[in-house]
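Quarterly update from the structural biology core.
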Amino acid sequence: MSNNAREILGLLDELPPLPAVAARVMGLADDDRTSALDLAQVLSTDQALTARLIKISNSAYYGFARRVGTVREAVLVLGFKQVRQLAVGASIVNSFKRNSVLDGVFDLDLFWGHSVATAVAGEAIAKKTRAARPEDAFTAGILHDIGRLVISQVMANEFADAVRFARSNHTSLHEAETRLTGFDHAAVGRALGEQWKFPGHLVDAIAMHHDESLTPAADGLPGVVAQANRLVLHYGLYCGFDDEGAAPAEMSPDLAALEEAAGGIDHLLDRAFAFIESASGAPQRWYAAAS
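Predicted structure, tokenized:
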């Protein structure tokens, strides 16, 4: 039995607030009166985020011939919803700091690689199945493992042991961390999402992303994210570490159908790498299995 997820939030000395611009951008999500100019003005208050957004807009993630020079141009070229999801993703990717205790054990570049790959896969699945809004699927994919970062910061030594256990025994980090830290990162993510005042559908997707029985058709956004996470894990893009010794399992027909619908794993990984390279600088490492 895992501990109460809210307990660990109280143990975190410096719980990072949801980045201010990301919070304001998410608040614009359901306001029909918001214009492209309104969104551009909010984003332009964060110079670092503005630079990242322009870089992403001009990156291989989109591959546009036209060069984008301002946030307003990005909104006009990419669209309101695309820029909103990129702003949330890029700001949160840069909101947590590295912990030296985890050096050589848990790689933050690979953590974000997994999260972004799940986001890109979720976005593609949502577009094909129409089970959720693609921008919500992307945002939920970026956020789905956010509780794991909380655990890694509060219980760094225990979490490092969990990563070592998962790698050496070729088992899931989800099982290992719950066993060795007493906390379930999905439940911690739910608590953090509620504290950050995320919309309920995002909180649900974060909380249920390890329930592989969920499907896009029956469960909407939680099903999209759960299956996107399942697809990414199938190809060895584990959360924050490589496990080159793990034998790939045979892909089930339902997962194969979702991968085909999403455009194939190579296409998804190319987009994921292009996004994270632009959002946070070139990762120090990428997954050996996907290179």
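The chain has a mean pLDDT of 85.
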